[in-house]
Specification:
- This protein is an alpha+beta fold.
- It is built from 10 helices and 4 strands, in the order αααββββααααααα.
- A 4-stranded antiparallel β-sheet has the order 1-2-3-4.
- The longest helix has about 50 residues.
């Protein structure tokens, strides 16, 4: 109600509308020039219903009127002689409209009624804000009725827009207490109805105990505790064993020995993991003192000549045998380390795109370079 709304300019609004009405008997679709003249609601009504009409003879003219009975009379008016074109101007002539009354239905709905007595029509215009399809804000046609359908009752239409706004405010203030009173009367009635429903539900709940047979229920037999506990324990042990068994099939990411890897290009090594164990047991190595010859012969199958000399020579032989066993262990450990390092280097070279022949040439080159190094290094 704050923005200024100009009165409708009938000399620019009515001629395009009147020129489009007779075309309803020629085409079942409305002309493109008519749609921008209509309000958004009436525009959608005409577009959708005219596009989905079952017969090509159906006229879209009846869609401009919301009353089905008045729509039939509207077609007869447009077919009358009043809608003949003027021989000079080529337009449908109509007399000047002196009074244009207004009414406001709510804060966003302002209407203007235009009575064309000589044509027998009443055009209701609606003020539309920001109507992009209609070219912006302006007056748009909301309905077209016969002139006989003007009995809207007293105190409905007002001469100016300000009078219509003031009347709408007064009506809103007068109807506010009535709406509050109606709302207040409906709330206690609703509360009483809800209370009665709750009482009925409570009565029905407690009435179930009266319908229950007066007898003691039988004793429920529960399964033995030991049997149930053993069943649960067995199932738990089985599930845990299956769970941990999955880790036996996992290949660690840091493990150099991959069973799924192709070993044909690497070849078999002359060393294995049991080489050290076959010569010197772990108990003999981890012991702080060197083992005696008798214990060493029991754990390690080594053939050496038996000394036939005195006890001093026997001790010397024992020391020599122990020293040889430790030296053999160190040598085997070094050999196994060299073999593992070469395999790792070959895997690294193959992953970098170096083939086996080139890798062998690299090893031979390095070995040849070792001969030129001093023995001290």
């Amino acid at each position: 109600m704050v923005n200024f709304i100009p009165p409708p300019d009938l000399r620019s609004l009515l001629p395009p509308l009147l020129a489009c009405l007779p075309t309803a008997f020629v085409s079942s679709r409305p002309p493109p020039a008519l749609l921008p003249l209509l309000s958004p609601i009436l525009r959608q009504r005409v577009q959708l219903l005219s596009a989905t009409s079952a017969s090509s003879s159906d006229s879209w003219l009846s869609l401009l009127c919301w009353d089905p009975l008045a729509a039939a009379e509207l077609s007869e008016i447009v077919q009358s002689e009043a809608f003949e074109l003027h021989p000079v101007s080529g337009e449908i002539e109509f007399r000047d409209v002196e009074d244009v009354p207004y009414r406001r239905l709510d804060e966003e709905t302002l209407q203007a009624r235009v009575l064309l007595a000589d044509l027998g029509l009443v055009v209701i215009y609606l003020w539309c804000e920001d109507d992009l399809e209609g070219g912006g804000s302006g007056w748009r046609v909301s309905e077209v009725n016969p002139a006989k359908d003007t009995a809207d009752g007293p105190n409905i239409w007002w001469r100016t827009i300000n009078d219509a706004d003031e009347k709408a405010k007064a009506t809103l203030v007068a109807e506010a207490p009535k709406s509050s009173a109606k709302l207040g009367d409906s709330v206690p009635a609703l509360a009483g109805t809800e209370k009665d429903e709750e009482d009925d539900e409570d009565d029905g709940y407690w009435a179930q105990y009266d319908n229950t047979p007066a007898r003691t229920p039988g004793k429920a037999q529960s399964p033995p505790l030991n049997a149930a506990a053993s069943t649960i324990l067995h199932g738990r042990n089985t599930s845990e064993a299956d769970y941990y068994a999955q880790y036996a099939k996992v290949q660690p990411a840091m493990d150099n020995d991959d069973p799924s890897e192709n070993r044909e290009m690497i070849g078999e090594s002359s060393l294995d993991g049991n080489a050290v164990t076959g010569i010197v047991p772990m108990s003999a190595i981890t012991n702080t003192s060197m083992p005696s010859l008798q214990n060493l012969e029991q754990e390690v199958n080594i053939s050496h000549p038996r000394p036939s000399s005195s006890s001093s020579s026997s001790v010397a032989v024992t020391r020599l045998e122990d020293s040889a066993a430790v030296q053999s262990f160190s040598e085997i450990a070094v050999r196994q380390h060299i073999s593992t390092s070469l395999k790792s280097l070959f895997r690294l070279a193959r992953g970098s795109g170096i083939d086996k022949d080139e890798f062998e040439r690299l090893i031979d080159t390095e070995l040849s370079a070792l001969s030129m190094m001093p023995d001290d290094d």
